[in-house]
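Structure (tokenized):
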């Protein structure tokens, strides 16, 4: 279950609430704010893009962000932004992200921190497509990627 916070007082709130029980602030997303966050995903300052990713995926759990984040995988030039995007896509568990994450994982020029995050995200998303990519990662040239895939696949097997 995702943890949500009030944007006004930062109190932790349970899912499904329309207002913060601590301060009464409305929790219904302001469309103008959400649009600003989508724009900020492409901000030239990486920390601004990372903050937008964090707010959309963790604090707001905004499902409309999935496609924008998938698109960001093709355009992000900063490794940390790329890693955070992959982590966010894992949180959303949307199978539409699997092909884009898989292409990052398979591309050797992708920074290692992104490739290992891709393995973890694929494990969170699950499904046959993600499993196939994880199985191919078992023979990856990098030990960290291989071990991550092993760990994720063994965790998946224990759940079944």
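Design, position by position:
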């Amino acid at each position: 279950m995702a943890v949500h916070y009030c944007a006004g007082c930062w109190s932790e709130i349970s899912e499904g609430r329309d207002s913060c029980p601590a301060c009464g602030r409305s929790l219904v997303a302001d469309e103008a704010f959400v649009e600003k966050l989508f724009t900020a995903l492409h901000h030239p300052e990486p920390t601004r893009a990372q903050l937008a990713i964090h707010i959309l995926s963790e604090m707001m759990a905004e499902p409309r962000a999935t496609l924008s984040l998938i698109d960001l995988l093709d355009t992000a030039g900063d490794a940390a932004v790329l890693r955070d995007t992959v982590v966010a896509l894992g949180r959303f568990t949307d199978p539409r992200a699997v092909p884009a994450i898989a292409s990052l994982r398979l591309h050797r020029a992708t920074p290692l921190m992104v490739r290992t995050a891709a393995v973890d995200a694929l494990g969170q998303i699950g499904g046959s497509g993600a499993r196939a990519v994880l199985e191919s990662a078992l023979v990856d040239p990098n030990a960290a990627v291989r071990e991550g895939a092993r760990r994720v696949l063994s965790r998946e097997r224990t759940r079944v």
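Reviewer-requested clarification: The chain has a mean pLDDT of 91. Residues 143-159 form the longest helix (17 residues).
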